[in-house]
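Morning!

As promised:
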Amino acid sequence: MRDFWNTALRDLGKIGVAYILITVGVWVVFMILIPQLIMFDYSLRPMLPLRDIGGPKDVWTLKNYLVFFSNRLHMAIFFKTIWSSLIVTVTALAICYPIAFYLAKVAQGAKVGLLMIGLIIPYWINELLRLFAWQIILADMGILNQLLIFLGIIADPINFRMGNGAVILGMTYAYILFMVFPIYNVMESLDKNQLDAARDLGASWLRIHYKIVIPHAKPGIAVGCTMTFMLAAGTVAAPQLLGSPSSFWFTQVINTNFECANWNLGAAYATVLMLLCVVFMFMMLKLFKVGLKELTQ
Amino acid sequence: MGQDVEISGVGMRFDEVYAVRDINVHIQAGEFFSFLGPSGCGKTTLLRLISGFMDPSEGQIKIGGKDMRGIGSNNRPTAMIFQNLALFPLMTVEENIGFGLEVRHVQKVKRQKKVEELIELVDLHGTGDRMVSELSGGQKQRVAIARALAVNPAVLLLDEPLSALDLRLRNHMRAELRNIQRRTNVTFIYITHDQTEALTMSDRVGVMSIGKLEQVAKPDVIYNTPVSSFVASFVGETNNIDGQIIRVDGEYAVLKTVTGSFLCKNPQHMETGETATIFIRPETVFLVTDPNAENGLICRTRTISFEGAYAVVTMTTEQGQIFTMRLNNDGTAPRIAEGENIKVGFSRENAFLLKTGGTAIA
C-alpha cells in the first residue's frame, strides 16, 4: 500500500494525486453513495404528511417492501419485466454476435469504418425521437402495415402495439450498440491464426465458434448482456411510447408511485429493481465464468 | 505416410497484383522441402494455397494425385504450423493436441491414447494438464508440432515456426524437426527466410524471389551452382564483380571489369559482349604468392573480424571494389594486419558468371 502511494506520488506528483483523489472521490460520494443511500433511506420510511416527517411516526420499517411482495399485480409486472428484458437481451445477443464477429474478424479496412458509422448514426438522434420513429413505423396505418397491405400479405392492418412485441423490438433496436461494442472489443483481440488453425485441424465453423471464439469473447458477452439487461429493465421511455396498456413495465409502476407523490414506495420498488440488476450481473459472471476483473478488460 | 504435392502453373492474384506466379514444382512424398526467400516473396501465400485457406487464381495443386481446388483447409490431408504457433490459450496442452481429433469425433479413449503417443513423440511428458501459457518457447513449439501431427496429416506445412526462438533452441529444434520428419515420414513443406535453416534441414530447397520460383535443387547444388544472380546473392555470402564478357572459351569465359579481367565458369553460356556478374564465395578466395597466378587482385585490408573457426577479412581493391575472404583458423594462414596491401585470388572453378541484375539485397 505504501509502495502504491509512493509510486503514484512519484509518477503524478502531489497535484496529480490530489486531482485524481478529488475527482474519483466526488464521483463515488456524490454520484453513487449519497443518491443510493437517500433512496434506500426513503424506501425504509412510511409515507407521511409533511408535518409528520421527522416526527415520532417517521421510523424505519419494511412496510413498503411488504406492499410490493403482497401486491400480485406488481409482482406479475416485475416478473414480466425480467422475462421481457431477458428476451431483449437474448435477441440483441443473437443479432449482435454475428455483427461483432464480422466487424472484428471478417471485414477489412474502410468497410469496418463504414459499418461502425452505420451502427453509431442512429445514436446521434435522441432516444425519444428514435422511439417515436418506431411508433410511426408500427402504427395502424404506419409504414410497415402499409407495406404489408401493398404487398398483399395482409388485408387489414395489424395492431403491432398490442402486447409486448413493440416494446421488445424498440428496446432491442435501442441497445444494439451496448451489446455490439463489448463483444467487438474482445473479439478484436482474438488472433485470426487461431481460427485458421482450428479450421485447418478440421473444425466446422460452428465448432470454431463454440470452442474458440465464444470462450474468448465471454467477458465481452457478459458485459454486453449485463448492460443490455439493465438498460432494458430500467428504461421507462420505450414502454411508455411503444407499449400498450397490457405491456406495463416495472419502471412505469415506479414512475407512477413517484407521480402519485408516494416517493417512499417508489424508492422501495426502485431498490428492488436495482437489486435485481445486481443479482443479474453476478449471475452473468457466474454463467460465463468471468471474474469482476476480467469484466473491465 | 506422406503424400506428394504437385504444384503446376500456380499463380495468385490479389486485386491486380500477383503475389506468386507460374510456380511449378513436384514435391515428393516423404520429402523435406523448403521454400526459401526474403520476406514478401510470396512464400506464405504459397503455403496458404497448399493448406487450402484459399484457392489459386490460376494453375492447379494436387495432393496425393488429387486436385485440391474447392476443397477447404478442414478437408485437406494437410496440417499447418503457424509462425506464431496459434495455440489455443484457453486450453491445456492435452486439449490443444487433441483438438483436431475431438472435432473429428474420435472417441475419447482413442483420443487420449493418441495424445499420449504424441506427447511422447515430441518429448513433453508431464505437461499434459498445463495451460499453454505456462510453457517455455521450445515446449510451445512442440505442442504446435504435436497438435498438427495429431490429425495424421500426409503433408505438414510449416510457416517459419522457429523464427521466434533464440539461436540455441533454434538449432536444437532444427535437428528435432528433421528427426520427427524421418520418424513419421510425413511430407514436410517448410518456409523460411533463413538460408541456414533451409540448407541444413531440407532434402530439396526452392529459392523464391518476388513471386517466382528461381531454382529448385538439393541444398549443395543451390549453394554451389546457383542458376541466377538472385539465388547466388541470397543464399550464402558472395563477392560480386560486374563487367563485360570479352571472350568465351568452352565452359569458361573472360569478364573484363574495372579491377581487371577474370576467367570464370560460364554456366548460362553467355556470349561475348554481354554484361555479366562474377560471383565468388569468400571461403574460396585465398592469399596468392605466385605473381603469375590466374584471377589475382591486389587489395588493401580494411577490417578483420575473428569469428573463432575462421576470420572474415574485408578488403577494397584499388578501384574501391569491396571484397571479402574467409581465412580458416587452422594455423596455416599467415598473419595479416588491417590496412595492409595483399594479393588474393580465386580459381576459375569457384567463380561463376551470371546475368547481371535481380540480385537480392547484398
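The longest helix of chain B spans residues 167-184.

Hope this helps with the figure draft.
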